[in-house]
Request: fold
Amino acid sequence: MAKIALISTPQLIIIFFFLLFSIADPVSGKNFGFKKEKLSHFRFYWHDILNGSSPSSVTIVPPPSMNSSILTGFGTVNMIDNALTEGPEMSSKLIGRAQGFYALASQQEVSLLMSMNFVFVQGKYNGSTITVHGRNSIFSPLREMPVIGGSGLFRFARGYVQLRTHTVDLQTRNAVVRYDAYVLHY
Reply:
């Protein structure tokens, strides 16, 4: 009598995914009618204003009353709608807004988890966005966070931003941060 070999469920799953990935077309911008991919560099200044009559950053979750959060602010969450300008002065040309949030995410140092969209409001990129999500150790002289996507002219965007604190007022905690964004897009 002939024996029938049975295939287990995990083996079937492995075979299915092997077949799926071996016949799938790779996704590229060309499949969507985009032109050649290019690298763009943008420099702008991010204004985090925490006080006054119209703050651009507001605390939506205050820090818990734990001893570990006293020095680092661990647990604090701020919602932002910060101006992005061509120069470090608030009066310089507005090119966009940084909309999202940041949270103090370390118990050992002052370090932020930042998630925001850079929404451009001028020129060729008006209405397009770049999405950034990452860790910002604010007392380091140079920080880096990934660009994880975008919209409009920045669909399929990827890259990184480098941050340098331009000025910070220790009394008000208002800050101006220089961003250099390096973005691959179509």
Notes: The radius of gyration is 22 Å. The helical segments are 9-23, 67-72.
